[in-house]
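User: Here's a chain of 414 residues. Predict its fold as C-alpha cells.
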Amino acid sequence: MLNDLFDTVNSVVTGGERYLSATRVGIEIEQSYRSYRNQSAELSPLEQRKLLAQTHYKGARKLTQLFHDNGAIWVKFGQFLSSRSDILPMQYVAELGKLQDDAKPVSFRRIETVLAREWGSNWRDQFAEFDEKAVAAASVAQVHKAVLKTGEKVAVKVQLPHARKLFRQDSMVFKALGTFGAPLISQFDLKQVMEQIITMTMQELDFLTEEANLRKFSALPHADLIYVPKMYDQLSTSRVLVTEWIDGMRLTDYLNQNPAKAESLLRQLLSCYVQQITNFGCYHADPHPGNFLVMNDGQVAVLDYGAIGELTPEETQHYAVLLQVLFGRIQSDRPLGELFRNAGFVARDQGVFEEVAELVLKENLRRHEATDILSTALDKMRDLKVKIPDSFVSVARVVLTFGGLLKTYKVVVD
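Assistant: Prediction complete.
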C-alpha cells in the first residue's frame, strides 16, 4: 500500500503542470456549484433551472478542456463519460462529446524523430509523397497522408514522442483515483472503469498489438456495411502503423448533413456490433464516432484497432442470451437470475438477482429503450454489490456508447 502511494505521489510530482491544472479545474468547478447553491435560494424555479444549466455548461467546458489538454487516458475517460447521459447533465455529455474531435497535432519535426528511429534515416525513400501536415490527431498518435512508390495512398499513424512516458505517469494517478474515488460514485464501478481504460490505452500504445487486432477483425464475416482498411504490415512497427487511405466523411459530420439517414444507419451499425459480441465473440471495443468514416458507397470504415474485445465461447453464448433477454428480444425459459449467475455475475445474496429481474421486467413493460434498460440493470446490480465480470463491463460500455449516439440523433431502439 505504501509503495503504491509512493508511486502515485512520484507520478503526480513528475506529471507537474497537468496535475496542478486538474486540481485547479476541480476547485473551480466545485466553487461554481457552491455559488449556484448560494444564489438559487433567492430565485424562482425557472431562474434556478437557467442558472443551473449555465453552471453545468461552464463546468463542462472546463472539464472538457482539461481532458483535451492532458490527453491519452484523460481523453479516454472523457469519451467514456460522454456516453453516460444517464448519470451526467446533457451539458457535460455534449461538451465531452467534443473529445471525439481531432486534438492539436504536434510539429512534424517531432514526428520525424519517431519515423527515423523506427524506419531509419532514409525512411523517405519508401514514399513518392509524404504530407508533413497531419490530417488527424488524437490523444496518443496522429495521422499523415502519404503515397507509396507503388502509387498506393496510405494513412501513416505515428505515435506521439512522449505518449508512453505520459501514460506511465497518468496510469498511477488514475489507479489511485479509481481506488479512492470509487466510494463517492455509485452510478458505476469507477475502479473497474479506470482499470479498463488503463488496459485499453496500454494496448493502444503498442501498434503491433493494433496490427494483430486489425488482422483478426478483418478475418471475421462482417455484414456488408462494415469495411476494414487494408494493412501494410511490412511498414508497421510498435510506434508506426500504415494502412490504406480511406476517403470518407466522419460519422457525426455525415449524420449532421444527412439527418434523414441517421436512424437507418445507426440501427445497422448497432446491429453489426451486437453481431460481433453475440456471434463472433470478438468486437471493436472503442466505437466512439471519431472511429467511423462513411464512404462514398455507403459502407462504414472502422478505424483504430488498439482495443479489441475477445470473449470465450462460453461468455459469447451466455452474454448473447442475457442481452437479448434484457432487451426484450426473447423470452427465456430460465429465470433471469439464473442467466446472470451462469454468465459469471456473483452476489452474496442470490435473491438480489430476482430484484434485478423484477426491475428489468418493469422497464420492458414501460417500453424503455434497450440501452437504458441495460444501464438501469447495471446500476441496480452495483447498488446491490453484485460483482460484474470485467468482460461484461467492456461489452456494456460498447453498447452504452452506441446508446449515447442513438440518443443524440433521437433514434429509438426497442
